[in-house]
Amino acid sequence: MGRWVDVCATTEVDEEDLISVEFEGHDYAIYHDEDGEFFATDAHCTHEKVNLCDGFVEGEIIECPKHNGRFNFKTGEGLGSPVCIDLKTYPCKVENERVFIELVEV
Ligand code: FES
User: Fold this and answer.
1) Which domain holds residue 51?
2) Cβ 101 under 6 angstroms from ligand 1
3) Ligand 1 mean position to 2 CA, how many Å?
4) Binding site membership of 50 for ligand 1 (Cβ less than 6 Å)
5) CATH number of the domain that 47 lies in?
6) How many domains does the chain have?
């Protein structure tokens, strides 16, 4: 079981958009989908480590700003070339207008 970490306010992430947040030296991407739900992944593309926060959200897809690699941000699944490694996802919840992600110590 991991620990829940407060990463941002719900108002910081527009619908159909994402932001990058840093916590203890690691960057996480926080997504706000068109249905008002929040999701979290690693912030860096698994192809060449570009931060995805400048990418484009469409439905449940994040498109990397560098080579247009695409991931499903709800499952982390990479959706074809040039991406061949899935994106790590994190459990995410909202309490009192704050977004929390669950981090598991390894
Ligand atoms: S760096 Fe993201 S697709 Fe290449």
Assistant:
1) 3-103
2) no
3) 29
4) yes
5) 2.102.10.10
6) 1
d(CA 32, CA 47): 23
Cα diameter, the chain = 40
Q: What is the pLDDT along the chain (106 residues), one digit of tens a residue?
A: 789 999 999 999 999 999 999 999 999 999 999 999 999 999 999 999 999 999 999 999 999 999 999 999 999 999 999 999 999 999 999 999 999 999 987 6
Q: Is 48 in the pocket of ligand 1 (CB under 6 A)?
A: yes
- Measured in Å, residue 66 CA sits from the centre of ligand 1 at 5
pTM value is 0.96
The candidate with the shortest Cα–Cα distance to 62, out of 47, 45, 48, 49, is 45
